[in-house]
Amino acid sequence: MKIVNLKKSYQNKIVLKDITLSIEAGECVGILGSNGSGKSTLLSTLAGVQKADGGTFLWEDTDLFHNEALRTSLIGYVPQGNPLLEELTAWDNLRLWYDKAALNRELDEGVLAMLGITEFIKVPVRKMSGGMKKRLSIGCAVSGSPKVLLMDEATAALDLVCKERIYNYLREFKAKGGRILLATHDVQELALCDKWYILKEGVLQPYQYDGNVSRLVGRL
Amino acid sequence: MAKCGKYICAQLKRVLKVFPTIIVTTLLLLLSMALLMWVVFEKNNSSEKKQMVQIGLTGDLEGSYLGIGIQTIQNLDSSKFAISFVDMTEEEAKEQLMQGKISAYVIVPDGFVESVTSGENLPITYVTSTGATGVGSMVMNELVDTISKLVVESQNAIYGTQSFMLENGMRDIYWDATDELYLRIVNFILGRTQVYELETLGVAENLSFIGYYVCGILVLFLLLWGIVCSPLFVKRSEALPKLLKARGQGACSQVLGEYVAYVALMLGTLLFIFILLAVAIPIAGVSPAEWEGEGISRLFLFLLQMIPVTMLISAMQFLIYEVVHGMVGSVFTQFLLALSMGYLSGCFYPISFFPQSIQALSGWLPSGAAVQYAGKCLRSVSASGECLIMAGYWICFLALAVTVRRHKIKNT
Hints:
heterodimer; A: alpha/beta; Rossmann fold; 6-stranded mixed beta sheet; 4-stranded antiparallel beta sheet; 9 helices; 35% helix; 26% strand; B: mainly alpha; abc type-2 transporter like fold; 2 domains; 4-stranded mixed beta sheet; 16 helices; 69% helix; 5% strand
């Protein structure tokens, strides 16, 4: 999977300048950057929420910017916030994204079971904790077995137990050959990644994360 | 299409979750409205007696002719429910007039009847107060003026006839002719049992009073119902539209799904209210004149005819919730808009009470067109003009809602 010369601007402000990167199968890439640096814009543009001003998003030889059907089947996008209907139960929310048979299968032994959603399947979203909501959000986003996961600060403000559950799922996803692009501020999430990039003033620069947070902060 | 269908189903489930709460709110509101109306009607009925114009009678009331006259006025069908005469002294009358207990009093001078028969014409004094500014008092003042003129002119005619007879040697028939003239005048005045004819015009294009308010209150109800449904809109996730878009479901499909569910909720609530009306109308025995002689099926036909109005107002409210953020802001906007549009569309006072310019503007407002459309449906006449205006607004509101949603998906 390759992103080549991706450009995006809002009115006169350039947010993404010729972004180029590639992600191999089973690889997790972390995008670091201060608030407002354009991490969310990069992910939402790749997910098809916003239109790119230029560049290509290649899957093998197909430009996913021009093939919506393929893009929606390949990509699972976890936006910031929870894409959930507060009045409905976890089951009702998942039914929006899954067929009944597929949902039962995933709850029994699939990704939803791994995320522990089965435990609160009948609970209305408004009564759920932050961790439950985030796990359910990921569960909704990964319907249709995507090959690429775009995660926008997916574990922000979650407790350690919940984070660990999500990390376990991400490790499993990687192990099965999935590709992950993470926008994050979280040091624990950085440890999951195989490659790191810093997004600053619209430019993507490679970075070698070695666990030294002070050095990282200095670069941001 | 299947995705859109799934989204509509999910939104309908949401609506079903809040429907019981909305029905309870509707019921409470209807009960308080019914109670208020009952209090108003009861107050009107009990104060009917107090609304009679009380006139004090003072002075020389001994003459039998005067007694007959007063008795006649008090027993005439056209005046016995409007005027009441009370005998009293002049001091009592003055005091009661100042206290507002009577509208006016009449001072009959000593020897009044004799003066009339001899042609001397002593004036009766009619005393009223500047504080008595009610419609009843104004009408009485006018009535006194008219009767004075009528009596004086009639007397002039009789005295002229008498002079004519004396000057032309008709002394032998003088008294008989005078008596006959007086009798004719009395017969002429008292014989006019139907002195006036009261005709009440419809408040708008011949729509009955109750009919007009059925339409007005219905539209106002729909306008205000946007506030009750606020939890559906203000608790929406900002991330969901993005995920839907990433899954190939754009702004148009999202707005359609949410709007269909919202219209279903509004129609469900409206159906509930019409069922209550179907039960209440036969018990209360009050219904618009337009439905007289027609069964309860007419009520439900009217409900079906209200679907376009519901769709229009729902679209307007949907747009407001799409544009304005936050609970307080959106509820406040809905409330202000409902009140101002309701007022300008004649939901509070009949639109015919307003100046021509406002009447013209009202017809072009979405709610104004809705009230007029409902009125025409009630009278079973064609409302194609109003339908066109409503359809135009409906398309505009939904198109704007889609544009705003598209903007939100890209920029939040």
